Amino acid sequence: MPPVSTAASQAGMRRRNLSLVLHAVAGHGEISRAAVAAEVGLTRAAVSTLVEELLSLGLLAEAGLTRPGTVGRPGTALVLSDRGPAGLGAEVGVDHLAACVVDLRGKVRASAYAEAPNRDHPPERVLADLAGLVVRVAREGAAAGLRPVGITVAVPGLVGRDPGTVERASNLGWEQVPAGPLLTAALADAEPPAGPPAGPPAGTPADDPSGNPSHAPSAGPPSSAGRLSGLPIGLDNEANLGALAELWLGGHDRGLRHFLHVSAEIGIGAALVVEGRLFRGAHGHAGELGHVPVRPAGPACPCGARGCLEQYAGEEAVLRAAGLDPARAAAERPGPGGRVRLLAERAGTDPAVRRALHRAGSALGLALSGAVNVFDPQKVVLGGGLAELSPWLLPGIESELRRRVTDRHWPDGAVAVSSVGREGPLLGAANSVVRSVLDDPTSVRPREDPS
Q: Which helix (H) or strand (E) holds 331?
């Protein structure tokens, strides 16, 4: 192995130290230089130099004097900037599209949603529609002084190691779709052909230890400065991004480092977080809980198997079991989560809906018990539509877990309800870009406009 050059070693140390400082500020919201130095174990002089560089990159801002009660003389409080570099997330659902921009603090600054019957529609058309939403939220973000430095897209399917490709999304009818390149082309068509750049964008790292999507291209300057079509695009499974949103934004105790996150819309996905990192599996396909067979002789599934969990606990399956037509339910309750809201409303008065939800909870519990026995998580977290239906699903889930989990010390109440809910995949997508900046601040170019 060739020796590492001194320059490369110094660059790596600088990158790590910048990241340490940036994460320290992110973890506190507001903190002085002296407190950062104490937390990260660097000298105050070193931290001061690093802070000045982060200020020049537009990643930090100064927010006046530190709060009263701090030890020593008041210092200037540091906060993450709410202008400049930002994360852009997008989502392709079976029946909807969404996009949002978040600042470095994780606050949503622009968002857009559109109902869209994407099942069996050409991927080019779906991604062209998504590009329109992306351009819209990017313009709104630009008006607030934000410039996306990368795009991550949540998809309801398998994303393997081939960058930018959805290997299979059964509920969309997609097989080996080069979604990243298609979205790049669609963005180039959707953006105005001329005009001054919104700001100098930057790439995002290809992978990082926090569990960010591993499918983004390597960091580097975009092909067309200031244009969305020049930004690196990462893809990830919606359940993975929902789990990351739960890890980063869910408000759980920091001791929660091992959990299984399960969510459902048309399909059912799961993701496993181990030691605070997303577990992807050997081929990037870990978490396909919806295609675990719970009744081997059950109905056919779009994946090609029979009796999959999705056929008993997916949104459309529950509607049909409750005697409700999925298409009519969507018309009666349009908009994001409308059919889930309908189920929740009907569950209060309709015994058929309650029975359907209890059966769905039992099927979920059956599948989850196997995962709990194999992985031994601290908790199971219900996200997506499952969170909104948890009052009726939990009895069936917990009954099966009590019967089937072999660890008798696994506690009652270890099934938690997500605080980010159905917004998880989209928030996880946008915040994965932010996390890549926190992990490698050197991927961001210095701002050219001092404002």
A: helix 326-332
Instruction: Reply yes or no on whether the pLDDT at 200 is more than 80.
Output: no
- pTM (predicted TM-score): 0.84
Note the pLDDT tens digit of each residue in 210-269: 455 543 333 333 333 358 989 999 999 999 999 999 999 987 777 788 999 998 877 788
Q: What is the DSSP letter of 243?
A: H
The fold of the 6-80 domain, in CATH, is Arc Repressor Mutant, subunit A (1.10.10)
Over the stretch 334-370, which tens digit does the pLDDT of each residue have?
Answer: 777 788 889 999 998 999 999 999 999 999 999 999 9
User: In the 8-state DSSP scheme, what is residue 52?
Assistant: H
Strand partners, 21: none
Q: Is 445 exposed, middle or buried (0-12, 13-18, 19+ CB in 10 A)?
A: middle
**E-only strand ranges, 307-435:** 379-384, 415-417
CB 278 within 8 A of CB 399: no
What superfamily in CATH does domain 252-418 come from? ATPase, nucleotide binding domain (3.30.420.40)
Dmax over CA atoms of the chain, in Å, equals 72
Distances 120 to 22, 56, 255, 302 between C-alpha atoms, Å: 44, 47, 42, 12
Other CB atoms within 10 Å distance of the CB of residue 76: 12
